[in-house]
Task: structure prediction
Amino acid sequence: MELSRTQRNRLTPVQRNYLRLAARHEPRRRIARNMLWAFGTGGGICAIGQGIQFAFMHWAGFDQKTAGNPTVAVMILLSITFTCLGVYDRFAQKAGAGSAVPVTGFANAMCSAALEHRSEGLVLGVGGQLFKVAGPVIVFGTTAAFIFALLRVLIMPLFGGHA
Result:
């Protein structure tokens, strides 16, 4: 536990000794291994999505542009299914940040919130919790899109491009 200098100065000698003892017994963080594992698992999820997209292109006659939407839908469906079965959470424990690939991670977060609060009812439980999760994401996404579009309109003419 990291403390500021002011907080450390306020500690008693017993508290300081305890923090030193606790620091010696704290397990070491395996940062490089965790980063590689997250990169590999996130890449694996993306490779599965790419395989699904290739399947839509090969067997269903989609082109690369039109295969994206059904691919995203299948990835969301898989994520929700695995969340409902309890598999996604166990996978996320091992995968770490790699399981937070935007589409599957967001679907997992939404489904988990709905499952956790289903006993409170459809409107106040499931609906309320879904909007607690999705609301900030939607507001941030909309705001960021507006700002980037505004910057593009303002900056592109400076470089001779069309906005």
